[in-house]
Design a protein that fits this description.
heterodimer; A: alpha+beta; Alpha-Beta Plaits; 2 domains; 4-stranded antiparallel beta sheet; B: alpha+beta; 6-stranded mixed beta sheet; binds iron/sulfur cluster
Chain lengths: 135, 403
């Protein structure tokens, strides 16, 4: 039995497809939607907890990859390099989950990694490149 | 009673000067009134830390043996081209320059990971920089090729010289189009999805001396973690821009050209930055002391976020395509911007800043410490910046087709 939290990124053409249903029907997987967004321009974003038998789980993931969904494990860590962060605040408008927020008193930017879904939108948006992906 | 800069400097030397930040002066004036504040406070320090694209450094690398004349040739620092249209070994590196093979926006939106600003940050940090150059060779400068590491501690001069920094107020950027756009004001989501602003508001140098009564050519400042000077008004200096009754412009107005010895600056205050889809730049820390000479000056320096307004500008269509200054979208105070949302067209829009307020405070505090400890004396401006009375304005390019 496998249970993993994963981030799925859909290209535009797949946004209205019943992909998750197929995971349930064809691969007998259970899911729990944690978050869903139409994030940037041409991409949909879905954070799922996906559960099932090892073999079926892997087949399900294969299927997703085949049709063009990009998959990322949520355990992939987004880390802020605090030495580099200038607390400019520009990332707060790109972060879809509110994991990056400005403290209204100190005006410093907090990073709540428990809210982060590793969508990586902040990575290229951070001017000094303080947000980093660690594998 | 009015004070002079000489008197204030005497106090600084004795360690007796009363120095406060532009944030602290707000409460002092509210509590004690303008008159007492003007008597008691000697200096107000300001600060700003934001992306400033018209920034760069010039370096004299020293003569090679045999000699080479870079002037008229080509030269690169860590692959980023530097300007060498000067004498033999003087070069200038602008912070937005990119290496020839940077993909730029070919893969849209471009990342602009490494540009002139990044080279500057590494150079200031004391890292070795790879210099490659080709020259045409002359009888007195026979060499045609040079490849060497250079280091800030070995070059003759290294000077930060920025033709335009410290904008006095700036636009609030929104996007009325239905496409996501990548701008120098950050990522702007379609249909008023977000609003980005840039500026330290009540801490910002030129908003605390809106009519340039004390800040002028020759004013000594905090620049990039070291000491610098105001060299001139900055490019696009626009003192006749619209102002409120308190003298504070409500659109982008004055600017400064600043200069200082790069060798004593710090990489924390000169940070190479990348704006997705836009380009590379340098985020610069600047702090300016304001001598409290009289009541008028203390009143200006006590300006607060509620009293400073910035225009809302559409970067979807209006900014790229139209000459007209934006009026229809209205204006908003920095106090409102800092709440995290503004209202426009009946819609609540989240706001985000581009320049770091915590770093602006740190700069104002650092400058305050320098002055209090007697390390930093104030200078008298040698000439004033053109003010509103100069009639100077900012022009668009008049294009004249070449037949
Ligand atoms: S954009 Fe980067 S530097 Fe700015 S506050 Fe966010 S993480 Fe820090
Ligand atoms: S990756 Fe960045 S933008 Fe995405 S959720 Fe995490 S912090 Fe927010």
């Amino acid at each position: 039995m496998i249970s993993k939290r994963i981030v799925l990124r859909f290209p535009n053409r797949l946004i209205d497809q019943p992909i998750v249903c197929k995971l349930v029907k064809d691969y007998d997987l259970e899911f729990n939607i944690l978050k869903a967004y139409i994030a940037q321009r041409e991409e949909g974003l879905l954070v799922l907890e996906l559960k099932g038998q090892d073999e079926e789980y892997n087949k399900g993931i294969d299927y997703l990859t085949r049709i063009g969904v990009r998959i990322q494990l949520l355990s992939q860590d987004i880390v802020r390099n605090n030495a580099k962060c200038t607390h400019c605040g520009i990332c707060i408008s790109v972060c879809p989950t509110g994991a990056l927020v400005i403290d209204s008193i100190t005006r410093k930017v907090h990073f709540y990694d428990n809210k982060c879904i590793a969508c990586e939108l902040c990575i290229p948006a951070c001017p000094p490149r303080a947000m980093e992906v660690h594998f | 009673m009015a004070k002079t800069i000489t008197e204030i400097n005497e106090k600084i030397k004795k360690g007796q000067a009363v120095v406060v930040t532009a944030e602290e002066i707000v409460d002092i004036v509210e509590e004690k009134g303008v008159k007492r504040a003007a008597q008691e406070v000697d200096v107000v320090t300001t600060g700003t830390f934001g992306p400033m694209c018209s920034s760069g450094i010039y370096i004299n690398i020293g003569h090679a043996k045999p000699r080479i004349k870079l002037g008229g040739g080509k030269c690169y620092l860590n692959e980023v081209p530097a300007y060498c249209g000067f004498a033999a070994v003087d070069i200038y590196l602008g912070c937005t320059h990119l290496s020839d093979d940077d993909p730029r926006n070919k893969v849209y939106p471009g990342e602009f990971k490494y540009g002139g600003g990044h080279v500057i940050e590494e150079f200031v940090a004391g890292k070795d920089i790879r210099l490659t150059a080709i020259a045409y060779g002359t009888d007195c400068y026979p060499r045609r090729k040079l490849e060497t590491w250079i280091n800030i501690k070995d070059v003759n001069e290294a000077v930060l010289f920025n033709p335009r920094n410290v904008y006095q107020n700036y636009n609030v950027a929104v996007n009325l189009s239905d496409k996501l756009i990548y701008t120098y004001m950050g990522v702007l989501k379609p249909n008023l999805g977000n609003a980005n602003y840039c500026g330290a508001g009540q801490l910002s140098p030129l908003l605390n001396d809106p009519l340039y009564k004390t800040i002028g050519i020759g004013t000594k400042i905090f620049l990039g973690g070291g000491v610098g000077y105001v060299a001139w008004q900055g490019t696009q200096h626009n003192p006749t821009a619209k102002r409120k009754d308190n003298g504070v412009p409500c659109v982008p107005a004055g600017t400064l050209a600043v200069i200082g010895d790069l060798k004593q600056m710090r990489p924390e205050w000169l940070v190479g930055t990348s704006f997705q889809g836009y380009g590379a730049t340098l985020t610069v820390g600047v702090g300016i002391p304001i001598p409290i000479l009289d009541e008028e000056i203390v009143r200006y320096s006590a300006v607060k976020d509620e009293e400073i307004f910035a225009p809302i500008v559409d970067y979807g269509k209006q900014y790229p395509y139209s000459e007209k200054p934006q009026v229809e979208l209205g204006e908003v105070s920095y106090a409102q911007l800092k709440t995290g949302k503004i209202k426009l067209h009946g819609k609540e829009i989240p706001t985000a800043p581009l320049s770091s307020y915590p770093k602006a405070i740190e700069i104002a505090e650092t400058l305050k410490d320098w002055i209090k400890s007697g390390r930093f004396l104030l200078t008298e401006a040698v000439a004033s910046l053109p003010g509103p009375e100069s009639g100077l304005t900012f022009k668009f390019l008049k294009e004249r087709p070449i037949e």
